[in-house]
Design brief:
Structural class: alpha/beta
Largest sheet: 5 strands, mixed
Shape: globular
Strand content: 15-25%
Radius of gyration: 22 Å
Distance between the termini: 40 Å
Number of strands: 14
Length: 341
């Protein structure tokens, strides 16, 4: 009779879990280290996420997440090069190796995760599809949008969500497809379309840049789950781990009360979770093949998750978003760090 160990070994071989081929991990991680610069794909320009300021410096939540990864890898948030990409360009740029990571308001979906040779990493923002209409259209319910021309970006989940919802409700609409969200914003203000369909955070970001934002209404209904997160290639598990746990470190920091202003004081904390996060215990850095202070470098550069959200999207910004689902789980939201131990 075969032993239990033999049975497990046979099952693993049958499932392809054991292989004599050498592991291919480390390709992207090593390339970034050797290059000395992270190449990060971002949106071509959406306020609050990634938008160059008057000096050409990229600002926004996504841009800062790129800087956070550079800080994790090099201890220097400036060691990053931004590559602006449209929705149509983004996955090809990552597949071809033009960029190391995509952080560009990208919804994590099963088909994207399984069919593109890419890996969806983890959620950094929860959102949902919505519509923005002109206030003078007097539309208070999406069913009042029958017959409207709707500006959409091709190659996005929003294009599909809009078509599915109108079809389900036996309503008509005419799509006006434009790659750049800024072009959609211009078209709405010029009257070439009656509404924009995209994720609610993007709608708020676009409206904040309008000359007369009060003339436009974001309808309250949400029609989909749109969890945003970074995307990497499947060629490197080590790089995947760095990206995943850098985002997790931002959430863990907020959970533990660690922020950009109290890092030094927190190094004397008796709390084992805090001591690991701030590198007094080098366990986490060793696991990622990074400096023990990697998370300290990230938080010092861009803050914890709460600081990051409030600085770019929160109520005190022009975008003016409540955190909603992006609150910590202890405050009724969905943000929850996996245990970092």
């Amino acid at each position: 009779m075969r032993s239990f160990t033999q049975l497990l070994a046979g099952a693993a071989l049958a499932l392809g879990l054991v292989s004599g081929a050498p592991a291919q991990a480390g390709q992207t991680f090593d390339a970034i280290k050797a290059r000395g610069t992270l190449i990060c794909g971002v949106n071509v320009g959406v306020a609050g996420f990634s938008l160059p300021d008057s000096q050409g410096t990229w600002r926004g939540m996504d841009a800062d997440l790129c800087r956070g990864l550079a800080a994790a890898m090099f201890g220097d948030p400036a060691k990053v090069r931004f590559v602006p990409l449209t929705a149509v360009q983004r996955f090809t740029a990552l597949q071809s190796g033009e960029i190391d990571v995509l952080i560009r308001q990208t919804t994590l979906t099963m088909s994207r995760d399984t069919s593109l040779g890419l890996r969806m990493v983890t959620v950094n923002l929860y959102d949902g599809h919505g519509f923005m209409v002109r206030r003078d259209a007097n539309v208070t319910d999406p069913k009042g949008m029958d017959g409207m021309t709707i500006c959409l970006s091709p190659g996005t989940t929003n294009e599909l969500v809009t078509a599915d919802w109108f079809r389900t409700n036996n309503l008509r609409f005419t799509p006006l497809l434009q790659e750049r969200m800024q072009d959609n914003a211009t078209s709405l203000q010029a009257g070439r379309c009656d509404a924009i369909g995209t994720d609610a955070t993007q709608l708020a970001a676009l409206r904040s840049q309008f000359q007369q934002p009060g003339n436009y209404v974001i309808l309250p209904e949400r029609f989909s789950k749109e969890p945003y997160g970074p995307v990497v290639r499947r060629d490197d598990q080590e790089w995947f781990d760095v990206v995943r746990w850098t985002v997790s470190a931002l959430i863990q920091a907020e959970e533990l009360g660690v922020n950009s202003t109290n890092l030094e004081a927190m190094k004397s904390s008796p709390n084992p979770d805090i001591r690991r996060l701030v590198g007094v215990d080098p366990l986490l850095g060793n696991a990622l093949k990074l400096d023990p202070a990697w998370a300290v470098n990230v938080i010092k550069a861009i803050g914890n998750y709460g600081e990051l959200f409030e600085r770019h999207l929160g109520p005190k910004t022009a975008i003016g978003l409540d955190r909603g689902l992006n609150r910590l789980w202890t405050d009724g939201g969905l943000m929850y760090s996996w245990p970092m131990r």
